[in-house]
Write a structure and sequence with these properties.
about 325 residues; 14 helices; disordered N terminus; mainly alpha
């Protein structure tokens, strides 16, 4: 038989016997048993530091537990009922949402522009990338104290450079704006790095073909760069929304463990900690923390659902 006839000869399908199935299952079982020992340390630590604390937090939310842990009684849904009627909880949630609405668009736009600059610049690329990303490596305490000094009306550089006399940290109308500016400077480097990596993965021949067709730089960015960055933009928005809703560190440090003028910068996480460790109401703090967890989970699942619908629409 010739080589061609051998190549085109239909393959003989051998029926799968029960013994073969049993052997395959035995191999999979042995592989799982061996692999289980490798993931056992992670599962143990995950259960110890995540599953058990979450479970205990859920249980405490149905009690009137205090910080001492003594005389704890089961109160059912009383904590949740009180939380939904608590105006301070809704006010702190509004502050977190307001901060998120301000900072997320600024980070997305700034990170994209910085990535475009670092991607197309010809000289000292490493220096630009280092300068853009370096603030993200600073601890939150350093960032908070640094910007607390920069916003100082008397000695700070912000008013001096801008020629203003604005009491940034002591005025209700500018208190949250100050936190947004500090957060933008601090965290934009991470999103910048994601955008820069995405820009470097775009095939260069697309730009060459568009240039040959007469497309200028603006049309190349609109019709090539932005569509190719759609996925990474969705990722950046999702990560920044989830992180911004949980804002806490820089607010507390900038306002000396307070909540700004007239509590204008008190966020949801800060309110939960105040209820748990200042008012000693651990049960109530657990309840509002669980409500916040549900909000974060709904936003995450909603983002995943929208992404899946978009992918199905493209197909």
């Amino acid at each position: 038989m010739s080589a061609v006839e051998t190549a085109v000869r239909p393959a003989v399908v051998r029926p799968v016997r029960a013994a073969d199935t049993g052997t395959s299952r035995a191999r999979i079982g042995r592989g799982f048993q061996h692999g289980g020992w490798f993931i056992a340390p992670f599962l143990a630590l995950f259960a110890l530091f995540v599953v058990l604390p979450v479970g205990r937090g859920i249980w405490l939310s149905f009690t009137d537990a205090n910080i001492s842990g003594a005389d704890t009684r089961f109160v059912g849904l009383d904590n949740y009922t009180e939380a939904f009627r608590d105006p301070l909880m809704w006010e702190s949630l509004g502050h977190s949402a307001y901060f998120t609405l301000l900072v997320v668009p600024c980070i997305v736009v700034a990170a994209f522009l910085m990535a475009m600059l670092a991607h197309h610049i010809d000289h000292a690329k490493w220096l630009w990338r280092l300068c853009f990303f370096a603030p993200f490596l600073l601890p939150s305490a350093v960032v908070g104290n640094l910007w607390q000094w920069l916003f100082n009306p008397g000695t700070g550089m912000v008013n001096h450079v801008l020629g203003l006399d604005t009491p940034w940290l002591t005025e209700k109308s500018t208190a949250m704006i100050a936190v947004v500016i500090a957060t933008l400077w601090w965290t934009v480097g991470f999103s910048f790095l994601l955008y820069l990596a995405a820009l470097q993965s775009i095939p260069h021949h697309l730009y060459e073909a568009a240039a040959l067709d007469g497309a200028n730089a603006w049309r190349r960015m609109v019709h090539i760069t932005l569509p190719m960055l759609r996925t990474i933009t969705g990722l950046v928005i999702t990560l920044q929304v989830l992180a911004s809703l949980q804002v806490f560190d820089q607010v507390v440090v900038m306002y000396d463990f307070g909540s700004g003028p007239e509590d204008s910068t008190r966020t949801y996480v800060q309110y939960a900690l105040e209820e748990g460790f200042t008012s000693y109401r651990v049960g109530y703090a657990s309840a509002i923390s669980n409500i916040f967890f549900v909000i974060i989970a709904v936003l995450s699942l909603g983002r995943m659902w929208l992404l899946r619908k978009r992918e199905e629409g493209v197909r």
